[in-house]
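Lab notebook, bench 4. The sequencing result for the construct came back, and we need a structural model before the next group meeting so we can plan mutations. Quick request posted to the team channel:

Model the 3D structure of this chain.
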Amino acid sequence: RMADRVDRKAYQQTLPKKRISAGCLFFDTSRRLLIVNPTYKDGWEIPGGTVNANESPMAGCTREIKEELGLDRRPMWLLTVDFTGETSRRTESLNFIFYGGLLSEAEIAAINLPEKELSEFRLLPTQEALQLLKRRLRRRVKRCLAALSAGTTLYLEEQRPPWIS
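Done. Here's the predicted structure in token form:
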């Protein structure tokens, strides 16, 4: 019945909302990790960003890849979902990280960064790239690398599987 649907949606609109972000791991054929340097904050990142309202994490990630790198690439599979609880400095969030695959030399040459948002990109051996990431993202990406080598997807809370103390 129509009244039931309207009531359900009205109720759902009162429920808590979470921020959602989606990022992607890309490598070159030498297995170096692609990282980007934002102009608006310290620390390097992986390509990605905030998922918009009424946008899936996959669609948001695909859009961010196009906006940040100028590449039409859709992620290949989900590596991790990480729940991060609210703190005095940030609201709770769900952070999705996907595997994007290997970039060809032609794709790397075609990367076109939005200069107001990103100052540069680098392809670095993973250990070197990890050192440039902020602590939380570094821990998340380390878990992603483990999921990638195992061919699996991991659920995380605060950058670690909740069943591991």
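The CA atoms of residues 157 and 163 lie 10 Å apart.
Will bring this to the meeting.
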